[in-house]
Amino acid sequence: MMEDRLLVYDQVSIGYRGVPVVENVSFSLARGEILGIVGESGSGKTTLLKAAMGLLGRDGGLYGGTIWYRDRKLTDMSERELRGLCGPELAMVFQDSQSAFCPVRTVGAQMYEAVREHEKISRKAFRERAETLLDRMGLKDSARVLSSYPFELSGGMIQRVGIASAMFLNPGILFADEPTSALDVTVQRQAVDQMLGLREDYGTAIVIVTHNLGVVSAMADQILVLKDGKCVEYGTAEKVLKDPEDPYTRTLLEAVPRLKTGQKTNGI
Question: What's the distance, CA 113 to chain centroid?
């Protein structure tokens, strides 16, 4: 069915407590491809990512459509089957990485525990790989970071730890929910470069949700525009950014602040 498609959303509809928040959204992703999902807050962007990861909670669920990964229906998998995929195959960077970590255990201990669920690795080998990855994310005191509790790190630091944790096992697909929102412009560039490096080195496909059109233009091959839970535009990044068809997409692009020179202020 999917041929070279790694991920397929086929007319997916999602709701919470019977209230629809995403309706009939379809897209596909090939190995190494990057899809940017954009739209205003509340449009259903994060919900699309959570559906693939089985993170909709008790109140949420699919009301129509199917999500496929490598010819397997994610929507039909048991919790145990899906948990086996999350990490080495499917990984997620959360918008608020602070809340994704337990506050009473060091971030290094939590990262190691997550890796050990899927890979036999010594603590020494883990620390070496983790410190190298954190160094590349701009955290030069990586040994201290791994020994720290989440509350001892700034928002930008814990966000970079969250990105590194998701990238550690070189997943087939990286779902990134506003991964650069807590980072300054310089560190945004480092984070984007690391995610692009993951694609280049391992063929990782990426679905990135962001309000930052600078990040989208730097990363995405395809762009999907959501409005009120519905897809209003879907196509190549070049086409959507330079010649959008839908009035809502044009409104989003026009809302980007610009300097007098015409340079975007929120770009990277």
Answer: 21
CB-CB contact of 74 with 55 (8 Å): no
Taking the C-alpha atoms of residue 180 and residue 208, their distance in angstroms, rounded to an integer, is 10
3-state helix, strand, coil in the chain (%, to 5): 40, 25, 35
Quote the CA–CA distance of 109 and 130 in Å, as a whole number. Answer: 11
Cα 224 vs. chain centroid, distance in angstroms? 14
Alpha-carbon distances of 226 from 10, 23, 214, 252, 267, rounded to whole Å: 16, 10, 18, 11, 21
The tokens describing 251, both together, are 């409104």
> What would the pLDDT profile of 89-147 be if each residue is shown by its tens digit?
999 998 877 788 999 999 999 999 999 989 899 999 999 999 998 988 888 899 999 99
Hey, CA dihedral for 178, 184, 188, 190, is it positive or negative? Answer: negative
Q: Is 138 left (phi over 0), alpha (psi -120 to 50) or beta?
A: left
What is the reported pTM? 0.87
Integer Cα distance of 163 and 214 in angstroms: 19
Q: Would you give the DSSP letter of residue 109?
A: H
